[in-house]
Structures are given as C-alpha cells and as structure tokens.
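Class prep. Protein, please:
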Amino acid sequence: MSKNVPKSKWFYPYAALWRGTIALLSLIILAGILPAAARQSNTAAAQSKPAATAKAKRKTTAAKHKPKRTSHAVRHHAVAHRRVASHRTARRTTRRRYARHRYYMPRYDVTAGDFTKFDDPVVRQAAIAALGRYYGSVVALDPNDGRILSIVNQKLAFSSGFEPCSTIKPVIALAALRQGLINRNTMIRVGRRYSINLTEALAHSNNAYFAELGRRLGFQTVERYAHLLGLGERAGWDLPEEHPGTFPSGPPPSSRGGVGKMTSFGEGIQITPLQLAAMMSTFANGGSLYYLQYPRTEEQVKDFAPRLKRRIEIGPYADDIREGMLGAVEFGTARESYTPDGELVYAKTGTCTDVTRGGHLGWFVSYASSDDSLKHHPKLVLVVLLRRYGPRVSGPHAAEIGGRIYRSLYMKNFFSADNSSADTSSADNQ
C-alpha cells in the first residue's frame, strides 16, 4: 500500500469489522468467566448459609429480648435475675442456691446454746450487733481482774483452738526486747532496700521482720516466752469446757519455713480466744497474768475475787509494744477499729488459713484505755475471731467488728462508768 494513499481510503472501511471482532471476543471471555463466578458464589453461599442463619436467629433473639436503655448495673441485675429466678428445674435450682450463697451471706445464730445469765448485757448486745452476718466469736473481759464480761458463740470460743496467725507477734516482740536483740528503734531489713523498726513492723504486721526475729531467737527462747504468756495451757479458772490449745515440741520443718514461719504466721500453734484475751490483758495491765473467771452462779458472782496466775516482768518494754499496737489502729492493719471520739484502742490483727482445721481465719485482739490513764486503768480487753470456709475473712474484717463494738460501748457511756475495783486492782500492779 502506498504511503501517499490517504488514511481514510483504507482505515475506515475496516473500522466496523474491528469493532465487531473486539465485541465478539469480549462476549466470549465474559461467557467463560461469569458461569465460574456464579458457581463459586453459590458454593460459598451454601457453605455460609448455616452460620448466616444462626447469626440471623441470634440477631432476632437479641432484638426480641433487647432491654430498654438502662444503666449497666440495672442490666446486670436483670440478667442475673433471669438466670437465677426464672428457671425451675433441679439444675437451675442448684444454680439459684449457689448464686444466693455467693452474693448474700447467710445469717448464723451465733448465740445458740450460750449461757448468758451473768453476762454484761451492754457488752453482749454490742458484740452480737457488731458480728452481724459473720460467723465468729467475741470474748470481752476486764483486764484488771480477769473477769469475763461476755462470750458470744461459746461453742466456738471453747473449741480446741485455732492458728493464731499474726497475733503471735506481740509475744515475739517481747521476747526480742527482753533478750536485748532489738529496741524500739532497731532497723531490720525486710526488703532489698527497705528496713523498718518494731513500731512499723507491728503496725503493718510485717512477716519478714518477725521471721527474722524468730531465726535470731531460736525455737527454745520462743517456746519459753510463749508458755510464760499462757500459750499451751488453760487460761480459765474452773472452766471445764475450755481446751488448753497446743504448742509444738519443735519448730516447723525447714520446708515449711522453720521457726520463722512460726513467729510470723503462728505455724503449728493452736490457741483459743480465751488464751489470747489473757495474753492481751498482761500487756494491758503491765504484766499480771490472771486466771480468767466466768461466773455462772449467784455465789460465784458474790464471792468473785481476782486470781493471779503469775507476774511477768514486762517493764519498759510494754510501752514499745503499745506503740506498735497503737500504730496498727491509727495507720496499720487494724485501722478499721479506730474510734476518733472514744477510748484509745491498742490492737493486733491476724489473717491466715488454718492448716490444721481448715478454713480462713480473721483475728482481732485488743484493749481500750483512757488517754490520761494509759498505764494504770485499762478498761476492756476484746478478742474477735472470724472463721469461714467460703469467701475469705481477714484481720481487718475482725478489726471492723471490734471497732463497731468499741464505738457502740462509747455511745452507751460504758467506759465512763466508775469502776473502783479496777482502780484498786491496777494500783496493786504498780
């Protein structure tokens, strides 16, 4: 074809043919692609149909039962109510009972079987009201003569004993002070870069501090001071139902922490609320360990007289221990017992799992005294024991109950009553 022939002479006659060819090829290609795509789409739809159907059903069910716009707490309560209350089968009934036990503490009759004829009614009512729904025991006594004012849940209080947890620490503190290992300001390292003194260790119930004291003291010295303060022997006078508790003949094995575990957690020791009350009375009155007496007859009430078991030379060390127990109430583990308008409270808490008998334990052992008569007229010794197999209890829980009792007694003017016998007895102890 000559280069001089115009483009229109040879191009335009074939343009329609080219366009037709291109269109035909496009149709052929599309005819091959579209059926394959359709088959693939049908297969995917068939495979996803059950999931899509289930999803649609879930959406329909959710839309049907969709609650109104309410707060999260209300919606949660509504869901819990439907799950717990709307089903009547045996399985759902079990679930309903579990839910009730899980969220609502059952009410225990802690006073069943108690002999209360000669109890102080003000102290007893305050203790019962403070315990509320907790299962536990309360022992209240006069630290100046050893007279028990009230025992709530006597079955638990007169049992064979429980692990003392951290309430053993005042005993270890006295032993270390009297042996000259420490004084109030001695710093002991309890962490990589952290050291504390006795006041802080008692206030915060530091386990590492008292474990170190136990290792330095040794088991023989710990045993001697524990027996000196009444552990392992009956605390009461003429109380046939009381048990002596137990103090082991040797320290725990090294695999269980050795003597350090005993002096920080009370490992291997079994102690009763009455023994703890007698021990705390000794710190409260300055060193007199009295037999605890619980008058049961008119004659016992009329002829009551203090019975001194032994005198313990606490001397100036009592003030060092008091500082730590006061710190526990003001800023430590027993701060729930703080009574800003009442008496000064000195306390020690304990929290642990009883290895021997099982269950969680919460201890609160304390005494109250007037500010202007700290060393001469302690008013009341109070021991609270909580025990539970389910949701955990602790020393701070027991301290909260103790605080309720102290505040209730203060509001009822219990501490302002004149007690001449207490003054006389305390004067004899000086």
User: Anything to note?
Assistant: Confidence is low (pLDDT under 50) at residues 61-106, 419-430. DSSP finds 16 helices and nine strands in the chain.
